[in-house]
Amino acid sequence: MYEFKYHRATSARQAANLLVKADDAKLLAGGHTLLPTMKQRLASPANIIDLGKVAELKGIEIKGKTIVIGAMTTHAEVANSAAVQAHLPGLAALAEGIGDPQVRHKGTIGGSVANNDPSADYPAGLVALGATIVTNKRKIAADDFFQGMFATALGEGEMIVKIIFPIASRFAYAKFPNPASRYALVGVAVARKGASVRVAVTGAGENGVFRWADAEKALGAKFSAKSVEALKASAKGLNGDMHASADYRAHLIGVMAKRAVMAATAK
Amino acid sequence: MTTPATGVGAPIRRKEDHRFITGKGNYTDDINRPGQTYAVFVRSPHAHAKIRKIDAAAARAMPGVVGILTGADLAADKVGGLICGWMIHNKDGSPMSAGAHPALADGKVRYVGDHVAVVIAESLAEARDAAEKVAVDYEVLPAVVDLASATAKGVGTIHDVAPNNVVFDWHLGDKAATEAAFKKARHITRITLANNRLVPNAMEPRAALGDYDAGEDSFTLYTTSQNPHVARLILSAFIGIAPEHKLRVIAPDVGGGFGSKIYVYAEETVCVWAAKRVGRPVKWVADRTEEFLAVAHGRDHLTHAEMAVDEEGKILAIRVKTRANLGAYLSTFASAVPTYLYAPLLSGQYDIPAIYAEVETVYTNTAPVDAYRGAGRPEATFVVERLVEVAAREMGQDPAKFRLKNFVKKWPHQTPVIMMYDAGDYAGSMRQAQKLADVAGFGKRKRDSARNGKLRGLGYSAYIEACGIAPSSAVGSLGAGVGLWESAEVRVNPTGNVEVLTGSHSHGQGHETTFAQLVAGRLGIPIEQVSIVHGDTDKVQFGMGTYGSRSGAVGMSAIVKALDKVEAKARKVAALCMEAAEGDIDFKDGKFTVKGTDKSMAFGEVALQAYIAHKFTGQQLEPGLKEGAFFDPTNFTFPAGVHICEVEIDPETGVTKIEKWTAVDDFGTVINPMIVEGQVHGGIAQGVGQALHEGTVYDKNGQLLTASFMDYGMPRADDLPSYSLGFNGTAAPSNPLGIKGCGEAGAIAAPPAVINAITDALGHEEIAMPATPQAVWLAVQKMAKSIAAE
């Protein structure tokens, strides 16, 4: 780790101001990607703005037909939230499956979403549910927010404040973990809200999370595991590495989609 | 034995765990010396390169820098290179080609992570900053990475002494008898397999702290070692740091070794030498990446093996051709692992009349390879247990019955490859394991799995190992540079408590508990009154350390010998104090009594009298109660057992789930069943890691792709089932306690059990380790048709 200046923000506004003013600044929102890369000297921000004490960025509330989750809410808080468990149990299960207990108690939804790791779980959940990312400047639809590997729509001085999840009638996420890291090798989220069905895939794509149109169409016609059983995802544009070839990932997309639908229709 | 509550056989909790689980352990990195500095190594980013120039001027100007040292400085101080302590000869009798192994590079680097220079600074951060400023001009050479083609023409030469990269070309066994047996064979099974390279990954990374006392002209090295005396001997006699009496090596609490901390490494050599050079203590602690890059790796064999079987299903002969990767340099015991720790185990638990093994070892531009939990014996067991399994399947025989038919049934049994098995009950372990594993109910479980779309398989592994390493004269005749006895000293204090100094080293084995159990039971004193002292060359007389499952069989036997002497002396003291003939003294439950009288003295009273020396004269008896002993075993010990692994494969994803694990082991006498079971659990976890998760991958340029836990798959708790364990002990005749050893068994037994189970489930034999989900899924595709047919 190289030397850097540490700032503890006390309000979202102060954090946003610092982000603009401080040279080469990064927000610390759990730090599970940022700190390891800094320790390995692969990242060397001059200023770190710790959001850990910004109370207004934390919390979960039901607003109409949505669940609103503050950016600094930890994965454990989402997983254990009675509101999330009651209204979007699949989202609580997704959060419960992230990393290990230490990660879940430090890592936050805002940190994960802003980082947009191509193997992260939340991007699939946000895209499938059609969530809205609320920043200090604007509202961004999940479809527009994730823009490729570690790339997002966030501009200079922009930070995530909260995320609004529409409550879907059916939602589940199924993950096939990388055998070494246990990040998603392939993760598929499926959501049904009224007549709309959305299927989002993480872990597999060269450009991060993407929607699987064929599966959406098939499930839109009939929301059952059988509808995706015969589908084959294309290996084009998928990652291939020592853990999984693009073909294997393509195969797993089908399997995980089927399992996500089974989980979503279980009750 | 007395005091069964804590004595031999009692499953008591570990005495040392209180300090470990309350954060009070004392590891090398916990030790700090006044004026301490921090070392960071400049490591090669290239697998193979000439060093044209090292320019450290900019680095020297960085804040906090105390010194920057290179191979030239080592040479100027006449510090020698690292050594390989086991001489192997080629088939033609010529010695192996051991290339020089300087602690800091001498004009050439040979693997990514090789040591180029050391930067020593006031703080770790300053050392790291300065290390980044050391400019090294490399002339990159083609890297030799692939094991199969490492000796091909034109691939390049890693060491000038080995132009075609061959370290040695060795063999064992009777070639002619083996060829003759193959000619008579009714059936020949042929397999080709790889034993995958593993990175040991002890929880505590390696660390070293060198300290120099200018007043005494003496050195102290704190280091993560499994054998501090051996380290001192090598650092003194071969590397030339200082004479033995001017070098103290302390291996304090060590957080796991698995073999990787046996060896003398470049980093600790440099730290202790540099402490005098810079006149300050020098500390280095590996980060996890350095562990991946530069710790000695394990395994890495390519083998073609054949088994000849007659019409009755009796094994006639085994023929094995192995190529073993030793990496860029010969590590301390690298040459022994694929030879004398490997080929002598190719008889397995079987009565095989003829065996012939050829082993060619090669240099590659990868991290050095040396012993890792099991060391040669897992490689041998994988060959034998895959051969046996495939042969049985090819001949349409039940794999368990095939094994039972071929097991050794009489002891002693001389194999055709050196070993003389002295005690065992192989068939008994098989039957006990089959019962525990409910093999009879497997068919039903397989059908149940099939109904759920899953594939179930069952795999056996009947392993044997040679442990209790080892009779010194025997290993000496095979090329070892040292003897492999062990020493102990039992110091009884005047107040009756006891300190045992042992040359064994505990880095997770629980010696502070098991050794104390032995002493407490023998002397009839509470276990709290016994402490075990180890890991310091200034305290312990000498010792060969802990590896090869030897601490019980050899280390504790030395304690038994010392205890015999203590008891003999104490009897004399008791006789003189109670005015009785020595022959009339009985010792039982911690009490000395005089036959036919009510006279008695507790052990503690005798100890006090031995030191007060009021009741006898100097002519009658020397005062004091302290005895030492060395124990050299008369044979290896032969732990053996049967493990049964039952897996369920999800053909959709390729995920292999271990549903059941049964192990029946013959470890001879068991001192503490709880600790032994823990050793078995850990060993199986590592063996399952090799079979399912752990793959070390270098790219064609010699870059280690699996250099972190993001890409190197370690087994985790939820990858493993609850184990069903049984013991079927037969006493080892070669040591007084009858101990055989248990530390490596699980890691040796597990890989073939897993692969035999997976191939049973798949219905074909083509699967390599690690059998990752992708590998199994690909294998499942090959049998897709037969699934459809069901």
Short recap of the structure:
The complex is a heterodimer of chains A (267) and B (790). Chain A has 267 residues and is of the alpha+beta class.
Name the features:
heterodimer, A: about 270 residues, alpha+beta, Uridine Diphospho-n-acetylenolpyruvylglucosamine Reductase, domain 2, Uridine Diphospho-n-acetylenolpyruvylglucosamine Reductase, domain 3, Enolase-like, domain 1, 3 domains, five-stranded antiparallel β-sheet, four-stranded antiparallel β-sheet, 12 helices, globular, B: about 800 residues, Aldehyde Oxidoreductase, domain 4, Aldehyde Oxidoreductase, domain 3, seven-stranded mixed β-sheet, five-stranded mixed β-sheet, 20 helices, 28 strands, about 30% helix, about 20% strand
Protein described:
The complex is a heterodimer of chains A (267) and B (790). With 267 residues, chain A is α+β, with helices and mostly antiparallel strands. Chain A has three domains: 5-50, Uridine Diphospho-n-acetylenolpyruvylglucosamine Reductase, domain 2, CATH 3.30.43; 58-166, Uridine Diphospho-n-acetylenolpyruvylglucosamine Reductase, domain 3 (2-Layer Sandwich); 170-265, CO dehydrogenase flavoprotein, C-terminal domain (Enolase-like, domain 1, 2-Layer Sandwich). Chain A contains twelve helices and twelve strands. Chain A has helices spanning 12-21, 34-39, 75-80, 82-87, 89-96, 101-106, 109-115, 122-129, 142-145, 213-221, 225-229, 246-264, and strands at residues 5-8, 25-28, 47-50, 60-63, 66-70, 132-135, 139-141, 160-166, 170-177, 184-193, 196-202, 210-211. A five-stranded antiparallel β-sheet of chain A has the order 4-5-8-6-7. Chain A has a four-stranded antiparallel β-sheet with strand order 9-10-11-12, with helices on both faces. A three-stranded parallel β-sheet of chain A has the order 1-3-2, covered by helices on one side. Chain A is globular, with a radius of gyration of 18 Å. Chain B has three domains: 17-24 and 485-631, Aldehyde Oxidoreductase, domain 4, CATH 3.30.365; 31-141 and 203-256 and 261-294, Alpha-Beta Complex (Aldehyde Oxidoreductase, domain 3), CATH 3.90.1170.50; 301-470 and 635-789, Aldehyde Oxidoreductase, domain 4, CATH 3.30.365. In chain B, the strands form seven sheets. In chain B, strands 3-5-1-12-9-10-11 form a seven-stranded mixed β-sheet. Chain B has a five-stranded mixed β-sheet with strand order 7-15-14-13-8, sandwiched between helices. In chain B, helix 9 (377-394) packs parallel to helix 18 and helix 15 (551-577) packs across helix 16 (603-612). The radius of gyration of chain B is 28 Å and the shape is globular. Chain B starts with 16 loop residues before the first helix and ends with a helix.
